[in-house]
Structures are given as structure tokens and as C-alpha cells.
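tool_call: predict_structure(chain=1)
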Amino acid sequence: MAEKKKCLATVKSQSELAPGIYSLWLAFPEEYNVASMAKPGQFLSLYSDDGSRLLPRPISICEIDKKDGAIRLVYRVAGKGTAEFSSMHTGAQLRIVGPLGNGFPIEEGKGKRVMLMGGGVGVPPMLQTAKDLGTDTIICCGYRDELFLNEEFAAAGDLHIATEDGSAGVKGNVMDAVREDHLEADVIFACGPAPMLRAIKAYGLEKGIPCWISMEERMACGVGACLGCVCKTTHKYAHSHVNNARICTDGPVFEAREVEI
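tool_result:
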């Protein structure tokens, strides 16, 4: 496995998709082409230029352009760090480390009916996952209100939408869309807030469907050193000898039965 190191990425373009939701394309140097190594479900750690913000911000990979050596991040402005990133224009540079973490096991979905489920900022990482799986994929996206990336998802598979206010698709969350649209699958890949993942895990156990979930958690180092993003597991991990796993390195994607939510 290639060593993950810090490098300078260059902003190719940036746009606002919805209020507070930004799309950022980054290009990488030939000598350390992050895009050539990246997989769906992994993330990048982005560093602020402000010395008072020492810790990087982890952001999930939305799209990977291996041909042009670029990666797309779609993120929500949630604080001063992401606000700084949102102000960057074409040609600006920022320090990153990546790709980090373990992504979705695409091979587990080959030849099967796969349902991708994303909620909130858990929606973006499902786009490259959908592209790698193919157009037969069922995609279920949950939004607070305004939609983003929905046109890209519609082109990537069979899209179903849920919104909290009912302004588009089914009123409610992704599980409401599954029930109302009578969706069925052999495998589920999901990313979103803990309550959503908890409901998906319960649904998978009830239906006997394997579920792979990407867990959201605050991270400090992003490389497994600080143990700041530990989750409880149903078995002991070799490195810790206890029922704990590091979301940044052992995950962020886990088989749902492996973790306690």
C-alpha cells in the first residue's frame, strides 16, 4: 500500500450547488497522483492555512477522474475551516493528505441488485460508488430540502428521492422512500447520519440483506494515531485486542453487523 503523505492540491474549479453546499474539483501533482489511488468511499483530509486551526477537515470523495488526475469533493460549510475552503478560487492551492480510509467493497455488488442510500452530506460519496457499480443500481437520496447532485444520480442509476419537507420525492427519510416506492435489493451501501444508518442496519438484519455503511464521525488526525474516532465493534480488532475500531483507518466503511451504532 502506498504511503499516504501530505501534498499540494490545486483548485480546478468550485461552485455552490445549494445554499452552503459546495462542489470543489482538485488536481494533483504527477509525482503523487491522489486520483490514481482513490476509491469510492474514501476521503481526503484538507488543511487550513490558518495556523490557529491545526487539525485537518476530513471530506468524503464524491467523484474520481483518473484520466485527468482530479477528485471532486462536495461538502457543506459547517465552520470556519470549511468556510475557508469555500472561498478558494481556481488556481488556489491547499495541503491535503489522502486518499484515506477503506471505501465501499464494489466487488460485493457486482452481479447483484445494489441499493445505494445517502443522507445529507452522506449523499456525495455515493456518486462515484454508483458510477463504479453501473446504471442498474438503485439510488435513494435523502435531503433536508434543496436537492443537489440529483441530476448526476439520475444519470447513474434508478434514482429515488426523499425530502424532510416533502418538496421533492417522498416526504420523510430514505427508509420512507424504500417503503413507499417498494424498493428491494440484494446488497445495500449507505452513508449518512447515525440515526439513518441505525435504521438501515435494522432493516438489513430484518430482511437478511448485507449492508455496508460509511460512518460519520469527528476526526482529529485522520490516520489512526489519535484514537479520537473510535467506535464499538462486535469483535476484537487485531491491532487493539479490544472491541474497538478506528473509523478513519479501519473504516469509514464497515459491514453493518461489525459495528454498534
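agent: Helices lie at 34-37, 80-86, 125-133, 150-156, 174-180, 194-207. Proceeding to next step.
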